[in-house]
Amino acid sequence: MFNSSETAIDVENVGKIVYFGSEADPRASGVVIWADWQADKPANILKKESNMTVHSDTLHNQRIYTSGSTSAAILGDAVFVFGSTAVVEDTLGVWHGTGQPETGATLDAFSRTPSQAAIRFTFDSLQFNCNRLASGYSEAYETIKQGYGSVSESGTEFTLRFRVSTDGSAREVAAALQADLKEASERSEETNRRDASPKVVSQVSVSHEADTVSLLYRPVTNEHQSHAGDVLKDAVCLTGLSD
């Protein structure tokens, strides 16, 4: 939604960011930002990012700003929301109207992540290009219902967890994931692919407990740390949770 190189967002004044929505449909995406900003900040950000006229209106007794298909609003003291107009309107409805917040498996999975983590996330699927891992899929993964995880407060390691349908299947999923990650890493080294994650499988540990399979990636060098995204992609692709 925002340009990564030049943005009107003053990141040093941001305390927390929550992204929600669908990677497959940008129209269903939004972000809530806790920040020490002035009340005119949402309108200024929209104006700079879109280079279009910003229109203002009122919804649930709150000011909402719209530019094209993107909107922004103030949710409360130092709390702002940006996203597609439909998402911003729905968020205002939850905070100030009669809308109902997200519940069920999504909220439950998110609550399982540590509150002090730098990044917390939950997903049903992620949009990755998984062509090179197409042969690694195991039938054991069919019992996976949801993925969630977090990045440590230090930002040096991440945990990815999968919820499975029965306690008994967790052991099978953990064993398959451990074996498939090792095979994927060996295949990457053999082909010397640029997108490979070489020699990082030794930094990955897979465990299981009750209805949950956990993958912990704890890199020991900066080179290994740079492959964190590759490990996440491999795990999501292998388990079949990619769009």
Task: Tell me about this structure.
The longest helix has 25 residues, at 167-191. Helix 4 (167-191) packs across helix 6 (228-238). The strands form two sheets. The protein has a six-stranded antiparallel beta sheet with strand order 1-2-6-5-4-3, sandwiched between helices. Strands 7-8-9-11-10 form a five-stranded antiparallel beta sheet, sandwiched between helices. The chain has helices spanning 41-50, 85-96, 105-111, 167-191, 222-225, 228-238, and strands at residues 14-20, 30-35, 55-59, 62-67, 70-76, 79-84, 119-123, 144-151, 158-164, 204-209, 212-217. Helix content is 28%, strand content 28%. The chain has six helices and eleven strands. Residues 1-7 and 193-198 have low confidence and may be disordered. The chain is of the alpha+beta class.
